[in-house]
Amino acid sequence: MGEDRRPGPPFFQESLRPVTYISTRGEAASLTFEDVLLRGLARDGGLYVPEVWPVIPPETIAAFAGKPFAEVAAHVIGCFARSSVSEDALLAMARDAYGRFGHPAVTPLVQIDRNRWVLELFHGPTLAFKDVAMQMLARLMDHALAGRNQRAVIVGATSGDTGGAAIEAFRGSERVDVVILFPEGRVSDVQRRMMTTPTDANVHAVAIEGTFDDCQALVKALFNDLAFRDSINLAGVNSINWARIVAQVTYYFVAGVALGAPHRAVSFAVPTGNFGDILAGWVAKRMGLPIERLTIASNENDILPRAHATGVYEMQGVVETTSPSMDIQISSNFERFLFEASGRDAGYIRGVMGALQQGGRFELGPCAVPFRETFDAGAASEADVADAIRRTKAGSGYLLDPHTACGLVALERTEAQSEVPGIVLSTAHPAKFPDAMERIMGERPGLPQRLSSLLTDPERFPVLANDVVEVKRFVAEAARAAPEGVS
Ligand SMILES: Cc1ncc(COP(=O)(O)O)c(C=O)c1O
Ligand SMILES: N[C@@H](CCOP(=O)(O)O)C(=O)O
């Protein structure tokens, strides 16, 4: 394993050097992986990225072939986490985390067409791709907090899936309390119930009168109140937390190698909201995975494809779709890409993020070209989504969920006339969206037997105004109610 530092010494000499992390806004201290893991957002409001990019040599990538998912995960995460956690500890965590998945391959590939594949990321406990990272994150955080004899309060925002995955991964934890904010009435019943039916005292789901973007802004406001964040040891599990991205990089390598990488290239289409999952694909490419095309797939909330076409990132109001987890406008992780595309110009990032906050838009300027060169982009209308689900079922017998259908539509629109295999990331199981699937296909996909009581178990959740003071009060109360004994 080596690191991409141009110019620089040979990669093997670099390989023992721990990776440190810098903020995209350039005004926060550099941190270790463990600090980044526990802090989430940087104190200057920016996002952490590695100071140097690790590179995995082709022969190591080739050797991933046939290896258990957990072993590849330990290697990939180890590239970023070496300073904080040993590869043996990572391997033990990965074996434990991925042992909970319902498929031996963890993230199997299914062929749906001559040269198109679906990468099923939904075999974890909450039937969405978030489990792949969240199950590792919970173990990494517990390991780090135990080492420091500390507790933390996690506050997260969800458009449907992150919340359930976080609550499932951290429920019952003695070191962590979790408060998840979700947009009232804008998640599916199954998604909401995955958050509101667990009875563990350390997990709380809160409906916010607003959109996902409002929930995410509330979380960032809590992080930006430095006195508040320090008083409760605030941590984050959204993809603003770098460890989330890192843990998602693994399945790009696993899928790529299964289809012939590093000896041949592959392409991915990624259903996109917060830009986390596709950023993980971009990281895999930087680390050496030969990815020909990386396609941003949106639903009718098409701010990223519009920015791709016009060079202007402009908010227009969120519309509700059958793929609610992608009903997002402020794609947090886009900031990480812009930081790299601008040549790590923290001043540029402060400028564009300030403009977005104040005026709801910014011009990509010099970043428009690298954005177009690095990614393709496509948006699916609601009619496109229904059509993709119906014809895929008719053609191959395979049932896509509405998020995955956006991915397929975007892949089809941007596919080159090349023989490179196209992989659509399947980010959720169709059973998470029974109403939408019934409208499209005429029947409701069944939930797995282990979730049979989900739709009848009692729910508990307060509804709060989109108001930072009210949310702070709720979070402080949840933190106060935490058990004594750990500082
Ligand atoms: C099912 C599903 N698909 C796609 C996405 C978009 O992923 P990202 O926010 O990482 O872009 C999400 C939410 O994040 C999701 O829950
Ligand atoms: N689609 C997500 C939104 C939050 O994204 P994250 O990856 O930053 O946690 C969800 O389902 O909650």
From TrEMBL:
Annotated Tryptophan synthase beta chain-like PALP domain residues: 105-349
Reaction equations catalysed: O-phospho-L-homoserine + H2O = L-threonine + phosphate
Pathway: Amino-acid biosynthesis; L-threonine biosynthesis; L-threonine from L-aspartate: step 5/5
Cofactors: pyridoxal 5'-phosphate
Domain Threonine synthase N-terminal: 20-98
Domain of life: Bacteria
Any single biological process term in GO: threonine biosynthetic process
N6-(pyridoxal phosphate)lysine carried by residues: K130
InterPro entries from the UniProt entry: Ser/Thr_deHydtase_PyrdxlP-BS, Thr_synth_N, Thr_synth_N_sf, Thr_synthase-like, Threonine_Synthase, TrpB-like_PALP, TrpB-like_PALP_sf
GO molecular function: pyridoxal phosphate binding; threonine synthase activity
Enzyme Commission (EC) number: 4.2.3.1
Keywords on record: Amino-acid biosynthesis, Lyase, Pyridoxal phosphate, Threonine biosynthesis
Family the entry assigns: Belongs to the threonine synthase family.
Protein name as annotated: Threonine synthase
